[in-house]
Specification:
By secondary structure, the chain is mainly α. It is built from 16 helices and six strands. The radius of gyration is 20 Å and the shape is globular. The C terminus is likely disordered.
């Protein structure tokens, strides 16, 4: 597990954690000309789903995202008993902290690209809750946010990403998106317990988190699933968003002492029954398998979490990893060397592929027998990890 994690880290770090992204289609010259929602969505989805990589032709350059760095920082922090991994965690955490927004949206984080989905448009100048959560957790895990930065994050979270009822995806969105709402709840609960916030601000965060949990618990369906969001255009159920919901629901409940055992167990039961075909993850509940690097990596992360809590045996988590690992770059195989190049860029995305799998690998290592013991450094590693392109 550690050898896989080391190879994956080295692959991404040699590229400065920069690469393609599923949602980078609007960053090229054509994106600036797509003024209408339909044109933006068509361009973004064409780039995302094309069988060949259109980015070089469309002038779309590799992106280095704070979200990838923050996710990877938290993953490395699990192995910080090793000086090599501790240095990696700190380096990525410090860079992520420098990307914290200032000005109107001080304390939050954003994507480095405009996004148009079927339900919302948000430009790169606006923060969003998913980026904020992954970045904030990475910085908090590595201790790379100062007290004032933590206070700025707490104020920004309540001011711009909480509408009095639940946590919103962006400052301008009124839609309830369950995974984002519970990400906000878990982050709010964590911030409330840092000990560096004024008491009134900490209380508001904790109250907001409790209320957000109740809203999403009310949205759980009788079969134990959660739709992506509330509303007719948000009613699908997929694997990685369900994983986010379960992880953040449990984290919030643990931090605040809430009893969510029954809905959590119902959610886990639905997830394991409907979003796996044997050890191979399904993208949508009950559908045929569709390979996606983020969904696959989140399935490994969820299998590790489920094994740690006794929902599945550790052998299942190993089987899930074995079923999905072959397509990820940097791990000693190249499934595209002979045959189709279809969607190769998707698997080379630091944010959508490398960082989530690194998070899953280090989490799985921690729950396997012996994984909590002192972590050795990677073989033949240079503790400085300062090669060309590395994030610094």
């Amino acid at each position: 597990m550690l050898a896989l994690a080391d190879r994956l880290f080295r692959w991404a770090d040699a590229r400065g954690w920069a690469g393609p992204d599923p949602y980078d289609g609007l960053t090229g010259p054509l994106g600036r000309l797509a003024a209408h929602r339909v044109l933006r969505q068509a361009l973004l989805q064409t780039v995302k789903r094309s069988g060949i990589d259109l980015r070089p032709v469309l002038g779309i350059r590799p992106l280095r995202t704070a979200t990838a760095a923050g996710t990877a920082a938290g993953a490395c922090a699990r192995l910080s008993a090793s000086p090599v991994w501790r240095e990696r965690a700190l380096r990525l955490g410090r860079w992520t902290a420098t990307e914290q927004m200032s000005g109107r949206y001080a304390g939050l984080w954003r994507y480095e690209f405009d996004v148009q989905t079927r339900w919302a448009y948000y430009p790169a100048s606006v923060p969003n809750l998913v980026a904020t959560t992954f970045c904030a957790d990475g910085c908090l895990d590595t201790g790379t946010l100062g007290d004032e930065a933590v206070r700025s994050l707490a104020r920004g979270l309540l001011t711009h990403l909480h509408n009095g009822e639940f946590f919103t995806y962006t400052p301008t969105s009124g839609a309830l998106v369950h995974n984002a709402n519970l990400m906000g709840a878990a982050l709010a609960a964590r911030l409330a317990l840092t000990g560096v916030l004024p008491g009134e601000l900490a209380d508001r965060l904790a109250d907001g988190a409790r209320g957000a949990v109740e809203v999403s618990l009310d949205g759980q369906r009788p079969d134990g699933s959660w739709p992506y969001g509330r509303g007719p255009r948000l009613d699908w159920v997929d694997g990685f968003h369900t994983g986010y919901v379960l992880l953040r629901l449990e984290r919030t409940a643990t931090l605040l002492g809430l009893d969510v055992r029954v809905p959590l167990e119902r959610g886990v039961d639905h997830y394991l029954r409907n979003l796996f075909d044997g050890p191979l993850p399904r993208y949508f509940a009950g559908s045929r398998t569709r390979r996606d690097p983020n969904n696959d990596a989140t399935a490994v992360r969820m299998a590790a979490w489920a094994a740690e809590r006794g929902f599945v045996r550790p052998d299942f988590a190993r089987a899930v990893l074995t079923a999905v690992v072959g397509r990820y770059p940097g791990l000693g195989t190249d499934p595209w060397a002979k045959g189709s190049q279809r969607n190769r860029a998707l698997w080379e995305s630091p944010r959508w592929s490398a960082a989530p799998l690194l998070d899953a690998l280090t989490a799985l290592h921690a729950v396997l027998p012996g994984g909590q013991e002192e972590v050795p450094g990677p073989p033949h590693s240079d503790p400085s990890s300062q090669r060309t392109g590395a994030v610094s």
